[in-house]
Amino acid sequence: MRYQITGKQIDVGEALSTHVKDRLGEVLDKYSQRPTDAQVTFSKSGHEFVCECTVHLSTGLNAAARAHGTEIYATFEECAEKMDKQLRRYKRRLKDHHKDRTSPVETFEASSYILAADTQDDEAAEPESLQPIIVAEMETKVPSLSVGEAVMQMELAGSQMLVFRNEKHGGVNVVHRRDDGNIGWIDPRSTGQ
Hints:
Elements: E1 2-7, H1 14-31, E2 35-45, E3 48-57, E4 62-69, H2 72-89, H3 91-100, E5 107-115, E6 134-145, H4 147-157, E7 161-166, E8 172-177, E9 183-186
Parallel strand pairs: 1-2, 6-7
Antiparallel strand pairs: 2-3, 3-4, 5-6, 7-8, 8-9
Family: Belongs to the HPF/YfiA ribosome-associated protein family. Long HPF subfamily.
Protein name: Ribosome hibernation promoting factor
Keywords: Cytoplasm, Translation regulation
């Protein structure tokens, strides 16, 4: 397994890197037999350390956890515990998902844009143009999943929303966490048929 352990304006020493590899390896060995790589990023926010961890599993799914605290080792331990809890919760489904799949999840490229926020304070002011200002343009991967797998991927990644290609009919779908705590599913293909 490949580890990428980095620090944003923080020097991550050899001792912390070794601790991360050992501890994360223990967590991943318990629940997923074949993770491909893990990215762990440490940063500082005010007086607290922030640890973000993303693990790419051989099934094509990603698990993510985030924690913050005043000590860097304790922050990582909290992040590892969150990862452990997520993988434990989805262990059966991860194994079932891998059993049904003979190859990793397929993805296709899509454009992703970051639009500038409207910073006008006066609500009555007319915008100069209806065209949004594009701050950044990137490429992203859209996975081809079943609806159940998409919900599981959204939960594992800790996201509020996931765009995916529905394996059943090939159309683009969205699952999202609603304000009431339930999961919403948008399938434009299912209307009008």
